[in-house]
């Protein structure tokens, strides 16, 4: 009995850091640009379900869908996470509070990677600003 209790305590100690992490990233981009990339990322209904959005505070609560975790009823298991943006100098800080990060999934890391990809796509799709010709009077 004591051995079982010791094993449970040991496994609990090792497993607890896996749950409930905050992932922080600082971008050189303005928060408006990062916010657009966050919304693009969360717009993928295959990966995310948006629960609550606060445009003024640039905060979103969302759930992550993982098809590998199908329950007996057939519904996808969803875990609630939040992302919030805060201006930091001329750049933007993004905090992703994830309720799960482990061997199988890294919700905050996956989300950040997708935001980075969305920022890159937005940069590629924005045409370079053409030089404005001088006005002739």
Please describe what this structure looks like.
With 137 residues, the chain is α+β, with helices and mostly antiparallel strands. It has a single domain (18-124), classed as Alpha-D-Glucose-1,6-Bisphosphate, Chain A, domain 4. It is 33% helix and 34% strand. The chain contains three helices and five strands, in the order H-E-H-E-E-E-E-H. It has helices spanning 2-15, 31-42, 107-125, and strands spanning 21-27, 48-54, 59-70, 76-88, 91-98. A five-stranded antiparallel β-sheet has the order 1-5-4-3-2, with helices on one face. A hairpin with a 5-residue loop joins strand 3 (59-70) and strand 4 (76-88). The longest helix is centred in the last third of the chain and has 19 residues, at 107-125. It is globular, with a radius of gyration of 20 Å. Mean pLDDT is 77; it is low at 4-18, 69-75 and 129-135.
Layout of helices and strands:
Blueprint: H1 2-15, E1 21-27, H2 31-42, E2 48-54, E3 59-70, E4 76-88, E5 91-98, H3 107-125
Antiparallel strand pairs: 1-5, 2-3, 3-4, 4-5
Helix pairs in contact: 2-3
Characteristics:
3 helices, 137 residues, Alpha-D-Glucose-1,6-Bisphosphate, Chain A, domain 4, 33% helix, alpha+beta, 5-stranded antiparallel sheet, disordered C terminus, globular
What is the structure about, briefly put?
With 137 residues, the protein is an alpha+beta fold.
């Amino acid at each position: 009995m004591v051995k079982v209790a010791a094993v449970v305590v040991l496994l609990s100690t090792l497993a607890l850091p896996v749950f409930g992490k905050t992932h922080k990233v600082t971008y050189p981009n303005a928060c408006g640009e990062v916010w657009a990339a966050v919304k693009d990322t969360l717009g993928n209904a295959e990966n995310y379900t948006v629960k609550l959005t606060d445009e003024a505070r640039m905060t979103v609560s969302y759930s992550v869908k993982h098809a590998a975790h199908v329950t007996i009823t057939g519904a996808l298991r969803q875990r609630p996470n939040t992302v919030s943006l805060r201006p930091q100098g001329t750049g933007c800080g993004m905090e992703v509070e994830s309720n799960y990060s482990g061997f199988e999934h890294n919700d905050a890391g996956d989300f950040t990677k997708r935001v980075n990809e969305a920022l890159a796509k937005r940069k590629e799709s924005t045409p370079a600003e053409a030089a404005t010709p001088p006005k002739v009077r």
